[in-house]
């Protein structure tokens, strides 16, 4: 299912020295999680290579956030299901958390604290020594371009600024795997570009691995080296965006230039939504139907 | 879909824009982005060294307290609004019952007798609020993010409990000043005042953990608000804060004996007024209650993360 990751560039190799080079940044094996009768994640297999920007895509309710909450040790999962740089998330919780930077789906900065204080808190809870705390916080604030607003209460920030502040909070501990759950949700195009700009710069500077979810297919196409399409708790397709587009184009006999990642998304997720109200419809028939409908749209 | 070549990792914003020029990004967000700022990352390249276990707990408690004090510095309204209720209790209830002399206090003015009870009460009200606060932090994602840091749940709860204690001590100071202004003769012996701070921290640690434990059970703010209302008044009236245990009916005496607030009030009376108290027992009960509270809240905190 997963594409064999290409060898990282020299920068990535150097930055990740210390972790076993042959272990992926993240590996989920047959991961499942249910809320009562709702199977939010249902046999998820996923592998994210060290140093790549990996996009987890899928419709609302696909289970992306649940998968991320399992990876970030927030949900209890059995041992052997998730490893981060080779460390088991169920057994080595504290060590795994030291490798993670996490920005949840909702805006989560503390509005009663200033931007700087928000970042300082995370420097403290990641045990940054007092002697380098100030410099480290400054560096994180500079990296997200918030130095000027650092003294203001986060409650007065715009959505884009809060997102960048959250990035600074996540970055201050120098994580090896940065997990962003819809970092650009609800932002205007400029603010979205600003957030991606920050991510790209920090990734370039540190070689960290980034796992990101988004509903903006253009963003995923532009910024992710590989993406996985998730639907109803499972991965339906995985690969480089260009690869997935070419694959669908070949399947439909369409011009590859005219197939977008959004078409790929519709192809894998849209049919499932349509099929939801006809559960008796066989998988094969559904496949034919959705291929026809995708082809019709592209003509 | 396994063997196809993958494009190289984009190493800068320009590279990302160049390789990602597919049909999907017709809007060209990258062209809207300002030219990448040159950022120099030096410190952010290496993770900080981990701390050992007991120093980690101390550090987390310190971090939680710092946050609490920073918030209080930005917005002092809470400090003032929370001073109103104790002031009214002392002014109206205290002054009136001092005149009526209906409550046997063992020879001291009722206002003096009441002051330590009101200190304990206002500290408890602050601490009980922590359950609602932690649910709010869960809903806003602040708690979620803290739970993904190298902070064991017990350390997080201890930190919160200690922060509640520090906030209560500040509140207690305000009430001490109000009481002094109303003519209550309290001790100014620094050692005794330090004892007062310890008692208030322990008491608030227990009540904040009680409230956080209930938060871990009921999980929603609305339910907790109701329960918070339902328990604070019985805890207050079912203690020796307003009247001595001797005048209570038997069943209420039993409630009062099981109520940590009674031990807090007893210790505060002993320390602040210099009257007879069971200080050893009081400190012991409060320390045990706080420890049990931290344990219960840590065990139940995981439910809030789900
Ligand atoms: N705390 C919860 N209790 C009960 N059900 C839940 C809970 N969280 C998620 N679910 C259910 O699990 C499924 C997956 O939800 P999840 O939030 O993981 O989806 P998602 O892919 O992140 O969606 P979105 O794109 O809207 O964020 C949904 O059916 C959702 O209703
Ligand atoms: Mg989600």
UniProtKB/TrEMBL annotation, chain A:
SMART domains: AAA
Molecular function GO labels: ATP binding; ATP hydrolysis activity
Cytoplasm is among the record's keywords: no
Region (Disordered): 1-22, 272-299
Listed transmembrane segments: none
Composition-biased stretches (Low complexity): 1-17
Regions of compositional bias (Basic and acidic residues) in chain numbering: 277-290
This protein's UniProt keywords: ATP-binding, Nucleotide-binding
Keyword Amino-acid biosynthesis in record: no
InterPro entries: AAA+_ATPase (IPR003593), ABC_transporter-like_ATP-bd (IPR003439), P-loop_NTPase (IPR027417)
Top-level taxonomic group: Bacteria
ABC transporter domain location: 26-257
One Pfam family in the UniProt entry: ABC_tran
Name assigned to this protein: ABC transporter ATP-binding protein
UniProt lineage: Bacteria, Bacillati, Actinomycetota, Actinomycetes, Kitasatosporales
Automatic annotation (TrEMBL), chain B:
ABC transmembrane type-2 domain location: 77-304
PROSITE patterns listed in its UniProt record: ABC_TM2 (PS51012)
Any one biological process term the GO annotation gives: response to antibiotic
Keyword Membrane: yes
Transmembrane segments: 118-136, 169-188, 194-219, 226-243, 283-302
An MF annotation (GO) of this entry: ABC-type transporter activity
Superkingdom of origin: Bacteria
Name of the protein in its database record: Transport permease protein
Coiled-coil boundaries: none
Gene Ontology CC terms: ATP-binding cassette (ABC) transporter complex
């Amino acid at each position: 299912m997963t594409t064999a990751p290409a060898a990282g560039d020299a920068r990535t190799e150097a930055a990740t020295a210390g972790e076993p080079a042959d272990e992926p940044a993240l590996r989920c094996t047959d991961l499942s999680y249910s809320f009562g009768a709702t199977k939010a994640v249902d046999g998820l297999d996923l592998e994210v290579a060290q140093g790549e920007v990996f996009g987890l895509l899928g419709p609302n309710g696909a289970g992306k956030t649940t998968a991320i909450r399992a990876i970030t040790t927030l949900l209890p999962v059995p041992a052997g299901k998730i490893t981060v740089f080779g460390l088991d998330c169920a057994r080595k919780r504290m060590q795994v958390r030291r490798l993670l930077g996490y920005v949840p789906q909702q805006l989560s900065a503390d509005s009663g604290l200033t931007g700087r204080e928000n970042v300082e808190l995370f420097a403290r809870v990641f045990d940054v020594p007092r002697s380098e705390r100030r410099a480290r916080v400054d560096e994180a604030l500079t990296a997200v371009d918030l130095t000027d607003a650092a003294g203001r209460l986060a409650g007065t920030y715009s959505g884009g600024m809060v997102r960048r502040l959250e990035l600074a909070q996540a970055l201050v501990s120098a994580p090896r795997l940065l997990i962003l759950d819809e970092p650009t949700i609800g932002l205007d195009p400029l603010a979205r570009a600003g957030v991606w700009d920050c991510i790209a710069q920090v990734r370039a500077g540190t070689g960290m691995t980034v796992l990101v979810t988004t509903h903006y297919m253009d963003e995923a196409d532009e910024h992710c080296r590989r993406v996985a399409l998730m639907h109803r708790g499972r991965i339906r397709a995985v690969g480089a965006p260009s690869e997935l587009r070419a694959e669908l184009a070949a399947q439909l006999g369409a011009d590859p230039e005219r197939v977008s990642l959004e078409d790929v998304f519709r192809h894998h997720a849209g049919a499932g939504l349509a099929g939801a109200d006809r559960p008796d419809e066989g998988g094969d028939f559904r496949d034919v139907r959705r291929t026809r409908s995708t082809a019709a749209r592209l003509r | 879909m396994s063997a196809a070549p993958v494009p190289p990792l984009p190493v800068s914003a320009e590279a990302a824009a160049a390789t990602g020029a597919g049909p999907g990004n017709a809007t060209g967000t990258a062209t809207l982005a300002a030219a990448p700022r040159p950022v120099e990352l030096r410190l952010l390249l290496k993770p900080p060294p981990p701390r050992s276990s007991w120093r980690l707990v101390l550090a987390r408690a310190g971090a939680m307290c710092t946050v609490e004090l920073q918030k209080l510095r930005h917005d002092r309204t809470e400090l003032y609004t929370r001073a109103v209720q104790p002031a009214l209790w002392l002014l109206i209830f205290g002054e009136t019952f001092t005149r009526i002399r209906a409550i046997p206090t063992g020879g001291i003015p009722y206002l003096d007798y009441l002051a330590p009870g009101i200190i304990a009460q206002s500290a408890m009200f602050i601490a009980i609020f922590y359950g609602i606060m932690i649910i709010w932090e869960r809903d806003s994602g602040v708690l979620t993010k803290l739970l993904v840091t190298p902070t064991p749940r017990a350390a997080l709860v201890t930190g919160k409990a200690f922060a509640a204690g520090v906030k209560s001590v500040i509140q207690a100071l305000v009430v001490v000043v109000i009481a002094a202004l109303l003519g209550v003769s309290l001790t100014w012996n620094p050692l005794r005042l330090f004892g007062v701070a310890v008692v208030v921290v322990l008491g608030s640690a227990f009540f904040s953990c009680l409230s956080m434990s209930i938060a871990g059970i009921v999980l929603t703010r609305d339910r907790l608000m109701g329960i918070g209302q339902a328990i604070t008044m019985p805890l207050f009236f079912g203690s020796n804060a307003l009247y001595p245990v001797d005048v209570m009916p038997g069943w209420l005496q039993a409630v009062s004996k099981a109520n940590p607030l009674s031990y807090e009030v007893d210790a505060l009376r002993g320390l602040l007024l210099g009257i007879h108290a069971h200080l050893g027992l009081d400190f012991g009960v409060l320390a045990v209650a706080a420890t049990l509270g931290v344990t219960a809240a840590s065990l139940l905190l995981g439910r809030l993360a789900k």
